Amino acid sequence: xxxxxLENAGISAIRPAxxxxxxxxxxxxxxxxxxxxxATTYGRSPGGYFWAVAQPVALIVVLSLAFSMLLRxxxxxxxxxxFYATGLMPLRMFQTLSINVGGALxxxxxxxxxxxxxxxxxxxxxxxxTALTQFTVSLIIFxxxxxxxxSSAINTYEIIxxxxxxxxxxxxxxxxxxxxxxxxxxVWRLIWGIATGPIILISAVLYLYEDTPLFAQEYLWFxxxxxxxxxxxxxxxxxxxxxxISIPFVLACGLIPAFFGVLLLRKYGRSIxxx
Length: 275
Prior knowledge:
The protein has 275 residues and is mainly alpha-helical. The chain has helices spanning 25-42, 49-70, 80-102, 104-107, 119-149, 157-184, 187-195, 214-220, 224-236, 247-273.
């Protein structure tokens, strides 16, 4: 005899449980990657976050002492430390972002094998932590400078924030494109470090753009960092109002590499990661 179906026997068939939807999956993945980055980068090294503050402070002090022996006063204001800090800190924001974001895939390689972790999560995790760290370091340094000089050096907060936002856009954009190149050609990381080593000399950190010869200005204008640093100093000095700054140009320099970097990583990211 054939057994009656379960429905006829009064027993309902057990349906498989529905898979719960994963809300905010990207946010959770990025948060986990940030915590991992903090524990790995700053938690294991002696001093941790101390060196993130000590390195730029040491460089600013050395530059201030050296140029104070050569010049009677800085190109802007009367304080050498403030002048070089307003140029160096936005530059460091860009440099650290372009390098750290560039190494995001290689750093998170063990986790990218999981389907819930994407290259976008890896890039966002590193970018957010690096930007917050550098912004905090800048806040500490400028607060210390104001306390040291007993004066309020800030002219316009909105302009300063705008300059840092542009540095973040540029750093993430070039860092995203570097992320593809660093993964495809590891030697590119060394080339990039050598190529950007003297960038402090051509980014109007040690001088003002307006003080350079006209033929030099024609070339320096195409360096987006010159615009960012000029905007930063405009936010600190009420007497400084540069006319050469082009925000659309800086945005284009950051967004175009970001677009092509995401495009290349989306198509070849996982394949080049395991070459």
